[in-house]
Amino acid sequence: MKLTRREMLSALAAPLAASTAARKPNFIFILIDDMGWTDLGCFGSTFYESPNVDALARGGVRFTNGYAACPVCSPSRAAVMTGKYPARLNLTDWIPGRKQWPAAKLLTPEFNQQLPLDEVTIAEALKGAGYATASIGKWHLGAEGFDPTRQGFDLNVAGTRRGSPASYFGPFDLAGLKGGTSEDYLTDRLADEALKFIDVNRDRPFFLYLPNFAVHIPLQAKKEMIAGFQAKVKPGAGHNNAIYAAMIKSMDEGVGRVVRKLDELKLTANTTIVFTSDNGGLRYEGRSKSPVTSNAPLRAGKGHAYEGGIRVPLIVSGYGVAKPGTVCDAPVSGVDYFPTITAMARARGAGNVDGIDIAPLLKGG
Fold first, then answer.
1. Tens digits of per-residue pLDDT, 288-336?
2. What pLDDT shows up at residue 23?
3. Which neighbouring-strand residues pair with 62?
4. Beta pairing class for 311-318 and 60-67
5. Identified catalytic residue from 42, 70, 140, 216
6. What is the 3-state secondary structure (H, E, C) of the chain?
7. Is the CB of residue 36 less than 8 Å from the CB of residue 301?
8. Is there a catalytic annotation at residue 42?
9. What is the per-residue pLDDT across 228-264, written as a single tens digit (0 to 9) for each?
10. Active-site entry in 42, 70, 73, 239
11. Is position 304 annotated as part of the catalytic site?
């Protein structure tokens, strides 16, 4: 008899539950915005530079069939937070959505303009289990009254209704992130705030949700980094946008800083790091004919339900991983993170989620 995916993972979960450590693990969930499946060195790019994320893959499990729950941001993020499909949440497009296109053959359905407050989030589940919680970066799941602090997060830095920053350079005017100069880069500032949170909560279990605005448009990066990639551009290559490459490099440096902070505080072995994207890579910015990135050999990109729009890079490293350097071909969806993290934290989750606990896959199941 052939077992279903859910039945196989349930059977494998028993030995994992029996071996949980006395101290609850920490969790860092790094969510990149609009990063394509091949936009990292460890997923095949020879143009983009991501040594720190590549190191996470070497020390963890690299999933080759990671999927976002939706090809656009708000629904995908709602699925991560709740473990439920966007259709169940009636949140099926990015907030607030766009006007109906005159040439569209189908009408856009009405959908929630925020993640409902009665939905249980990962943060609420873990906070109830004694965790310190922080959302540092893009929220895009509702305006005032529906911000991260209303959804279980003790700390909200930069999370608003906005789906993209006005600029990646200061001065900033985001929740908990004000001021700065034109030399300050948003990706760096978010990493600064992440390090502060880890430092303050080193002696208690914590859940750090780190949803970078990068690599979402507007395409803006540090001049010196752009210049370095311009020298590498090969016309006709799939990956050849120097600005986008520089944005990836800054993001990667931020990941490296977070990992080094864990090493410094001797928290690495007891911290699970999840690294993924909210949807596939964006092919074109507005009406520009210059590609932002390429998802080849996958079809299409952000906004499309083809593979290029929903398959995303996924790496899980640290606590719970039995064999570093493992490559796993099992399909994993954005709805799977809620049941996985709450189970590993021994926290009370929600009873009607759509996702599956994939922790056994981290043990080689």
1. 888 999 999 999 999 999 999 999 999 999 999 999 999 999 999 999 9
2. 85
3. 315, 327
4. antiparallel
5. 140
6. CCCCHHHHHHHHHHHHHHCCCCCCCEEEEEEECCCCCCCCHHHCCCCCCCHHHHHHHHCEEEEEEEECCCCCHHHHHHHHHHCCCHHHHCCCCCCCCCCCCCCCCCCCCCCCCCCCCCCCCHHHHHHCCCCEEEEECCCCCCCCCCCHHHCCCCEEECCCCCCCCCCCECCEEECCEEECCCCCEHHHHHHHHHHHHHHHCCCCCEEEEEECCCCCCCCCCCHHHHHHHHCCCCCCCCCCCHHHHHHHHHHHHHHHHHHHHHHHCCCHHHEEEEEEECCCCCCECCCCCCECCCCCCCCCCCCCCCHHHHEEEEEEEECCCCCCCEEECCCEEHHHHHHHHHHHCCCCCCCCCCCCCCHHHHCCC
7. yes
8. no
9. 999 999 988 889 999 999 999 999 999 999 999 999 9
10. 73
11. no
Tokens of 120: 């249980």
